[in-house]
Amino acid sequence: MINKSVTPLAAMIMAALWPVISSGESYFNPGFLSVEDAAMADLSRFEKGSHQAPGVYRVDIWRNVEFISTQDLRFIASDASGGKAKSSGLVPCLDTDWLKRLGLNMLAYPALAKFKSGECVPLALLIPDSETNFDFAKLRLDISLPQASLLNSARGYIPPQEWDEGIPAALLNYSFTGNHGSDDDNYYLSLQSGLNYGAWRLRNSGAWNYTRGDGYHANSWNNISTYAQRTIIPLKSELVLGDSNTGSDVFDSLGFRGARIYSADSMYPDSQQGYAPTVRGIARTHAKITIRQNSFVIYQSYVSPGAFTISDLNSTSSSGDLEVTVEEKDGTQQKYTVPYSTVPLLQREGRLKFDLVAGDFRSGSNQQDTPFFTQATLNAGLPYGFTAYGGTQLAEDYTSVALGAGKNLGEWGALSMDITHARSRLADDSEHQGQSLRFLYAKSLSGYGTNFQLLGYRYSTRGFYTLDEVAYKNIEGYEYADETDGGRKDEPVVQSYHNLRYSKRGRFQINVSQSLGDYGSLYVSGSQQTYWETSQNNTWYQAGYASGWRGISYSLSMSWSKSVGIADSDRIMAFNLSVPFSTLLGHGYSRTSTIDRAYATFAASNNANGDATVQTGIGGTLLEDRNLNYSVTQGHSNTNGYSGSVTANWQATYGTLGLGYNYDRDQHDYNWQASGGAVGHADGITFSQPLGDTNVLIKAPGASGVGVENQTGVKTDWRGYAVMPYATVYRHNRIALDTNTMDNHTDIENNVSSVVPTEGALVRAEFKAHVGVRAIITVTRGGRAVPFGSVVREETTGITSMVGDDGQIYLSGLPLQGKLLIQWGEGKGSQCFAPFTLPPESLTQAIVVASATCS
Asked: Which segments constitute the PapC-like C-terminal domain (predicted)?
């Protein structure tokens, strides 16, 4: 019998000084937690320490300190399962399907065969030394399995059962650039549209170009590609039907219209992923960058003076040589080719990589035919670090066979060598045959900071031709930029030149970077192609040095390019300097200070014609999310006199926008860039920043204006939807909502989700948001506070809570009017209903204090 006159604090002290000694369990009377005369709910479920109630919880699942997924999982009491569990008193209900997902070697434990799908497996009893730990506060489940019990798989491998093919959707991506000058206008619109249904992806890419000048105008629409694609999981491959490009492992990449099925590297662990192209260059002025592949314009943008890097080319340019044109404000052009070839073709032992293509040759050049061809390549990983590969190309006027081998040389890097034999009939009906020998080398000297990303050389005999060359209609010819591309010029602008009498002889490629530690870094990249029957060659080289000191960054870049059939060569040297204002002002850097996020710039360049340009300016970032970049420059050229520019680029929720103004002695012009995306899905239309190949739709109904972590400018719209672009395929993508951006009336049960999308998918990451009033409601029943510890549920929204001292209940996401179900035991006699009404001004208050009566 407890003396009710004893205060809770005194009772706790007495219990500590005179503990009850018995053969049974220690017992703490819950009445000590409540005030005098207050009733108590049934708290027996808490008698065994910190044990939680069994049920379904959404948890982050980790196996041997490796993240697996975030999913709803049923938990049962540990004493009911016979398992070992830490802290929470709960163990997960894992069936045999789940054990397979965790990578358990099922054949090593025959006792598992008697368990049906969906039936809980007593993990700790059947798998010695296994253990589970459920951290209820973090909703994290750690599963520890002996390494010997697991199947061997590459680190980071995610089983296909977890791959998400996404939801049905319609997608649209746009990029619009425009230039309005003193003498002419130019507009370029690029559109990528698509449909997703199940595993199928339908994609179309097209571009519109408009040019207007003094007395002329022209416009055209160019369909770049249309194709359907889907994953074939059993073969770990992709199927493409329509317009696409062949791979470039064995043969040079070609455009085609037909069918292709190939092994998809992205389905394998990161260690088996391949090489990707990066375009570098130097601009003397505010220049327009145009990149072509197979004569199609696949990329166009504007860059500031100095060295630039482009690494976000879309999937249509994932392989094959890239033709880069840098058009300066004074009309001069640089032209060079960025070669793209894979690093040495090594495969893991036992892995086969295949690629099959059948279709019509396709390019954007009117100088070439469209012969039907087939191509097959195979790459096999052999023991002792060897790889064997080969392939064939077959067409009416062309036959080629390639064989090669690669070797992992350990500390000496990796290399591959192959030989290709080809028989060709050219446009003049002359027949030729020859061979081409290729050598590729890659090495990373980590201890010295040196990275040979790619070194390669190809030697070809006089009679060797490629399928791309055989497709030409004429032995020799120039291809000119048409009016829709370059406007009407006094003289035609040469876009490319070919002469099949000059068969390829030797081609050298290099891409090397060297870290100098505290003294910066160096890089050299480029290529040179020589020809039989002529001393001319195609050459492009670029070298650069970059470093920094106390926040100051500076770089020196040099570039040289020369093309066969084009008389002039391009040689440019540039120096760039950037100094933060915080350094100029002599104080520490602060991310919250606008002046500290600004910097002063200096740029100087000189080309082969003696054109020298000097520019100074300021730039920086604005807005709370630092998603507005600006730049103001003033310069002088020895050919065009003074010049200046003002540019701003805003990365907003529904797209990106760039504006610029440039002037010099002879002209002034305005340019702009706008890009974005839109997604149509079962719940409506969501606008976004430019979409990637694979994207995530965030669904948090009612939670408007909530930011997404690590995504500049991405926020949920007025309905609570957003798109996170550029998801990583076949990998866990962590999607987290920024709770700091939520208003006072929005709460989210779990702000973190994880998805594993397949190629081209739009996967949905769903969050449950509670939007409404936050309130502390004091509830009484018969003039007394409702029992301490009672479970509370709001009937309309399903929001739950628990009664605290004096009948106080904290709830979030409440409607202005509703009803609370309060339950303190079993049966209808241990529950009551408390209707409540909150004033309209509650919507503008952080927390509302109210009262209600339960009956």
From this structure: 777-840
526-534 average pLDDT score? 88
Closest C-alpha to 575, from 541, 547, 610, 540: 547
User: CA dist 669 to 238, 317, 396, 676, Å?
Assistant: 45, 30, 51, 24
- DSSP assignment of 74-95: EEEEHHHHT--EEESSEEE---
* pLDDT at 550 (0 to 100): 79
Using an 8 Å Cβ cutoff, are 123 and 721 in contact? no
Residue with tokens 């790459």: 379
Q: What is the pLDDT of residues 373-388, one digit of tens each?
A: 999 999 988 887 788 9
Considering 117-121, 297-301, 676-680, the range whose residues carry the highest mean pLDDT is 676-680
Classify 607 as helix, strand or coil. strand
Distance CA 378, CA 263 (A): 10
Which of the two residues, 104 and 85, has the higher pLDDT score?
104
Most confident of 58-72, 88-102, 568-582, 584-598: 568-582
682-770 and 772-853, same CATH topology: yes
Task: Give phi and psi for 123, each to the nearest 5.
Answer: -60, -50
Please report which residue ranges of 351-505 form alpha helices under DSSP H. Answer: 467-470, 483-486
Q: Write the class of the CATH domain 682-770.
A: mainly beta
DSSP labels for 168-203? -EEEEEEEEEEEE-SS-EEEEEEEEEEEEETTEEEE
> In 3D, which of 190, 316, 195, 194 has the Cα closest to residue 244?
316
DSSP 652-694: ETTEEEEEEEEE-SS-EEEEEEEEEEEEEETTEEEEESPP-SS
Specify the pLDDT at position 492.
61
The two beta strands, 450-460 and 431-445, are antiparallel
Dig out the tokens for 329 from the structure: 């404000």
| Strand arrangement of the beta sheet that strand 333-338 belongs to | 296-303, 287-293, 322-327, 333-338
Half-sphere exposure of 272 (CA within 13 A, CB side): 19
* Distance set, CA 474 to CA 194, 427, 471, 477 (Å): 37, 6, 9, 7
* CATH topology assigned to domain 772-853: Immunoglobulin-like (2.60.40)
Contact 589, 596 (CB under 8 A): yes
Per CATH, domain 55-152 is 2.30.30.760 = no
Per-residue pLDDT tens digits for 780-792: 988 888 888 888 8
Distances (CA, A) of 190 to 204, 604, 674, 676: 11, 33, 11, 11
Closest of 247, 244, 204 to residue 226, by C-alpha:
204
Please give the Cα distance from 253 to 822 (Å, whole number): 69
Size of the chain in residues: 855
List the chain domain ranges: 8-46, 55-152, 169-272+289-674, 682-770, 772-853
pTM value is 0.71
* Residue 406: C-alpha distances to residues 271, 315, 342, 445, 507 (Å): 17, 27, 12, 19, 19
| 114 φ, ψ (degrees, to nearest 5) | -80, -10
Give which of 637, 690, 643, 727 is closest to 190, Cα–Cα. Answer: 690
Tell me the C-alpha distance between 795 and 668, whole Å. Answer: 66
Provide the pLDDT for residue 16. 42
